[in-house]
Specification:
The protein is mainly alpha-helical and 25 residues long. It has one helix and no strands.
Length: 25
C-alpha cells in the first residue's frame, strides 16, 4: 500500500468527511 496514493486519497476523503461528519456530529 503506497503511502503517497493513500495519503492523497485519504486527505481528500478526510477533508470532506471531517467537514461533514464532524460538523454533523
Amino acid at each position: 500500500m503506497p503511502k503517497m496514493k493513500t495519503n492523497k486519497s485519504a486527505k481528500k476523503r478526510f477533508k470532506k468527511t471531517a467537514s461533514g461528519a464532524y460538523k454533523h456530529r
